[in-house]
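Let's study a protein:

___
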Amino acid sequence: MSSRSGNVASIIIVILVFSAVGGFVFLTNQYVPSNIAVVTLDTGFNDRSFADQAGEGLYMTDVVVSLDIRLAVDLDDAQDIMENIARGGRHDLIIVIGTDPALHARVQTVATEFVGQKFALIGGEVALDNVASATFALDEAAFLGGALAAYASVETEERNGIVGIIGSVETDPTVQSLIDGFLQGLQYANASQDINGTIRLLPTEYVGSYNDTSTAESIARDMFDPDDGNATVIFAPVRASIMGIRAAMEWANLTYHTEFGNDTTREPFVIGAEAIQDYLGNPNILIASGPSWVIGSVVPRSDLAVYRILNATLWDDFPGGLENGSANHTIGSLSNDGVGLLGVEEFREENWVTDYMLNVTVDYRQGIINGTIVVT
């Protein structure tokens, strides 16, 4: 394929990190850091979601690395970039971040051709010896998010038990896994004696894009609007469109206080997804303080997956068939802390999310781990 990588931003970053013994840690030659390529699809990093969460793992390693970060404009471009990097033979690892099955197919194509090149696929699986894959049982963590949403939506008289869901792209299997798990948790909690069937679910809506702030805001406003959806909690696996959800929360907060008076206990609550998004519910998202309307986030520990594969590769222990005899695929789950309902405690307002609610999610988590609660 002809390369269009000249149209893609490439950033070379050298990281020097002190080791625990006080000196620099070097894999081989201290003057020649290991070359690591990172490939993402548009919108790439700064999505405040899956890519950013995974990207945190790039900076956890204790060795010298040179990061070559590429943003592909589409699938063809992603394949071009991977082929050119692999053909050059200068990178110890190509890390591909994304949940799109079509992207995973392109990784398989390139990895099949360049069998000596090591790949890491974060968010999908390719069963080849030169690919270390990591996926995540997000439905398990989303179950906990659904349960928290159920309890948070009925805690006070102003909270009416109405819950909404806004997804990014309807055909994305990761989005559907998140929504399926959330619905199971919502329904499980709704059937409890505490709530006793009082939850009402609005029709699920989709932005139709991973990065459409205005559409996300419009949908969320309608859901929060007391004269429309009147939702108390919205689950929002919308990727980079999350800033539209933030804008809708601000609008709803003003609306609630105008309608109910300044002593209201009604707040526009959101359950985030695919990254720890609690800061997006702070009074000022640039200052990490104050209570948060984002009362929890359904998070894949993609950062840890990136770190573990990268660190192992740098120490000549690539977790794939090239060294270990078989293709490597790790699945992050509640049982191995590879997924979780995170971002609950740091900015928690105890009148919004009570200790009892948290204890319920802890019990549900243990039930999923020991098999007494089955997420399908």
